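ENTRY TYPE: paired fold submission
RECORD: A
CONTENT: sequence, then structure tokens
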Amino acid sequence: LIRGFEYFGGVTGEVLVDNQKSAVLEPSTEGQPVFNERFLDLAAHYDFTPRACRPYRARTKGKDERMVGYIKQHFFVRYRRFEGWEHLNQLGEKWLKEEADQRVHGTVKEVVAERFERERSALKALPVKRYDTAYLEVRQVGWDGYADVNGNRYSVPAVLSGQTVIVRIGLEGTLRIFQ
């Protein structure tokens, strides 16, 4: 979502998601679903209203999943190999600019890039600071002064022995331990 907002240069007023656990803890056929707390924090940071597809409702589910099929059938057919995430994202942005955004959209019967330019003003501004997507975990430091994280043991100052700490694992792989 964050990369999408950055790519488009703004934030939509509403975001429709499937019922994946990273966003929706308990789907609801009536009323409000129970959203993941971190997803709600992301929504508050970017000032969008989260919406979840109703289970067994093809109308909204199709809107959410149709783009996955489009990417599989058009992008991954052309680009089968990539060197890493950065390279995949570069190929994706190139494909969007040169191919996907230049096509006539099947539903609205307009060129995607032209329609977007007309609707760009409806986007809200991006926040000044990017949302922190690091994984946060709570750990208990052992009496020997080590914190166990993903099968590895990390030494911490002896004064933290027996205390609870927060472990932050950044997407770039950095690990930090906070009291």
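RECORD: B
CONTENT: sequence, then structure tokens
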Amino acid sequence: MKNKSIAFTIALIFFTVSKARSQDVLFTQWEHIPLLYNPALTGNFEGMIRCRGAYRNQWASVLKENAYQTSTASAEYKLAANNYREINMGAMAMLDKAGDLDFRNKSFTISTSVIQPLGHPDSWHHLLAAGFNLGWTFSQIDLENAQWPGGMPPQDVNERTSYPDVSAGLLWQYASNSKFSFNLGAAMHHLNRPNVSFSDSSVYKLNNRFNLHGRIEIPLAQKISLIPSFLFSSQGPSEKLLLGFHSRWYPKSNNPSYMQIGFWAKTAKNQYGKGKPIYAATATVELKSLLIGFSFEHFQAIKSNAYEFFIGYTFKANDTKVSKQNN
């Protein structure tokens, strides 16, 4: 009976940890963290260098200090660009923390993409992009907070593990001479299906994650645009859909600075059925090269909330030239 109790406790702990890590984090304002969702989006911006930072806090009113918290930081650089093709590089670091076992994922990823315009150089409107990333994830749990029969964990359980991770993606984009544009992209993550088990005697393969995303900007007036977008994510038995829109205002029609608000709905289903929709509101301001964003969502089922904060800066071509001259 004692051996059965130990086995059940171990299985319960690793089932809980496996469920926590088998589904990747989903930010509401996913477009501000492009490297996390599709490596083909690497370098897809106007400028030379783009930096982004994001933080998400979820269910703090219920879990208190054990709330789900995710932080990311990324940078992208246009390595080579000419009239026919762009080659881009990017790097991203992410820290994901959750639960009373202090479960943590620390990941570091290097991305690259090739952007190929289509058509005649005088009238390029379409482009195709292909991206690839290679990363490494370090995971850990705090076994001191676990309740073990007999007071000691089994010998083959480790507090830390690590594994490589490989992803690839594609993107198709169209942009007119006005602000009308759209894109459609797809990516497959965890192509190598790494073993994420903390036990030396067991194997738990991380499920592939498939992302499909799209976005369209529709000018409604000289300074106002409507931007619907979606993100569909499928990983193992879980499926998530994020659907919504931004309403964007450009203070000056010939200036890329803007202010926008958005409204979103999230739906999810797994092997246990379909959950209730979750609704979110977002606000973003981009002033010249500085981006600041915020989102709020409410989980009615557990009477709790989630918050996201974003900040970023894009160095234009003129900025980098001035910096080199000053040096």
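NOTES ON RECORD B: DSSP finds four helices and 15 strands in the chain. The CA atoms of residues 244 and 264 lie 4 Å apart.
STATUS: closed
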